[in-house]
Amino acid sequence: MCGIFGYVGKRSDAGKLVVEGLKNLEYRGYDSWGVACKTTKGTIIKKDTGKISAVNADDFAHGCSLAIAHTRWATHGGVTAANSHPHTNADGSIVVVHNGIIENYQELRKELVAKGHTFLSETDTEIIPHVIEEEMKTTSDFASAVRNACTKFEGRYGILAFHKTSDILVATRTGSPLIVGVSKEDGYFIASDIPAFMEHTKVVQYLDDGEMVVTDGKSILFTDLITGEEKPKREIEITWSVEQAQKGEYAHFMLKEIMEQKDSIARAVNQDDEQIRVIADAIANASGTFLVGCGTAHKACMAAEYFFSVVAEHHVNVTSAGEFKVHHHFLKPESLVIVVSQSGETADVLEAMNIAKAKGSKVLAIVNSEGSTIHREADYTLLINAGPERAVASTKALTGQMAVLLMIAYAMNDKLHDGKTLLLETAAQINDMLNPRYVNHIESLADKIQTHENIYIIGKSWNFPMALESAIKIQEVSYIHAEGFAGGELKHGPIALIEEGTPCITLAGNDEVTQDIISNTIEIKSRGAMTIGIAPENNEAYEEWIKVPDAGAAQAIMNIIPIQVLSYFLAVKRGMDPDMPRNLAKSVTVK
Ligand code: F6R
User: Fold this and answer.
1) 236-262 in b/e burial notation, b at 16+ Cβ within 10 A?
2) What residue owns the CA closest to ligand 1's atom 16?
3) In this predicted structure, what is the pLDDT of residue 229?
C-alpha cells in the first residue's frame, strides 16, 4: 500500500515524470499525494489530500532532474495535507517518501524530541529524515547516513530519500517492494511497482529485502543495507505491455479487466504440461498440502478445495493467510504450502510463506505479478499471466488462479488434457456470454436492486466460495452490505435476515447439488426474498434469471463473471468509482 516513485537522470522534467508515473500507481493508495523536486533553486515540495489522478503533471515541468513522489494509503495519522508525504527534517535538507510502517516510531520520536527535534505530522514516516539528520552528525556521506539510520528502524519499509546538497537518490527496502527501472537514455527510476515507469523502460532490477541502492542517474550501486557489501543485479526484461496496463476504450479498469477474462483464462491455462504434472505429483506426495491466500485469492483457494475433492479425490487444507500462523504446528518438511496472490506482495501471504520455509516445508507460489517478492522467494512458481490488474477489485486474477488450480486437480487425476479443454471451452463461452445484450441485462438488474441495503448470495459446493467472493465484490465497490452463505446454512440462522423484497442471489450449476440449492432458494423465496438465479437452467424458484453456460467443474469460474459485472454496475449506479473503493488499496503490504 502507498505508491512511491523516484527518478534521477538526464531529463529535466523529473517532477512531471514522477507525477505522471505515480498516476499509474494510484491503485496502491489514493488518500493523498505529494511530490518533491530538487531544482537548482532548491527543493520544491507540493502535497495535498485527494487523488494524484486530479493533479496536473504540467505544473511540475520546471527544470529538475531528481524528483520523488508518493500516493498515500493512510496508516499512521489521518488523511491531511500535513500527513502526506514527502516528509523532511526541520530545515528541509533531507526529503523522504516511505511505504510501510516504522513500528518503533513512537520510541524514536520520543528520543528525537528529547534532542530538540520538532514534528509537523502524526506519521511514523516523519521520524525518518530526523533520524538521518542525527546520523549525518557522524558522517557527511548521505548514503551512509541513510544506511545507519535504517539500523534503527523496526518494521517494513521502502524508502526513497535525497539530500539538498547531493545529486544522488537513495532507496532502501525492508519488506515493502521496490523495483529499479533502467534506461540507457533517461537514467534510473525506482518505484514500488513497474507500471510507474513502464512507458520509459521495460528493463528492471529488483531490490531484495535488506538492500540499498544509490544512483546519480548515470550509474547505480546495489549493496547490502547492513554490511555495505555490493550486490550485483541482473537486468530483467518484463513482458507486460504498456497497453495492457491502460484503460483503453473502457470507462474503468474494473470493466476492462472483467471483459479481458476470455483471454486471461486462456493464458492461465497455457502452461507447460510437464510443469503442471510435476506440481500435481508434489501435491499428491506431500504430507499435507495447505492452500493459503487473502481476500479474493483466499476464495480461489476455497474453490480449489472443492476442485481437489471432486476432480482429484484429494484432500487439501485451506487457510486465510492471516490465520496461517497457527498452522505451523502441523507443518513438516514434507508438507507443501501453496500461496496464491495476485500482487505477490501481500504481507500476510509473505508471512505465511516465511513460516512455511522456517519449518522446512516447500512453497509453491501461484502469482500474477512477475518478479514480485513472493514470485522470487518461493521454491516453485506458476504465473497465471493475467497481465496487470489495476482495479482494486480483483476479477481476472481470481479466474486465472481458479483456472490454474482446477487444471492441477485434473492433472492429479491424470486428465490434464481434459482439464485444459474444459477451461479453454469455458473461456470461449465467457467470450460469447459477455455480449452487449447480456451486459445490458445485468445492468438493468443492477438498476432494480441498487437502492437495497442488503444483498445475500448463496451457493453450494464450489459455488459456496463464490457466494463469499460475490459478497466481497459487491461490498467493496458498491458499499451495499452483502453476505454470502452456504445454502444449507441458511436455516441455521441467517434466514432470519430475509425480509420482503431482499435481493438474494443463488449461484447454481448442473450438478449433484443443484436440487439442494434450489430447495434453499425456495425456502428464502417463501420468506419474501427477491430471488435471482445465476445458473445454466431456469427454475420457478428464481424471480430473475441470469443464464450462464453449463461449465461442469468450471462452473464456479463461469458463475462469478455475472456477479463481477453486477458489482461494477451497482458501484457506477450508486455514484462510486469502482476502480478506487474507499479505505482500500490494491496491494496490502502492511499487516
Ligand atoms: C478483493 C481483492 C482483495 C485481494 C487480497 C489479496 O477484490 O482484490 O481481497 O484479493 O487483498 O491480494 P493478493 O492477491 O494481491 O495477495
Assistant:
1) eeeebeeebbbeeeeebbbbbbbbbbb
2) 341
3) 97
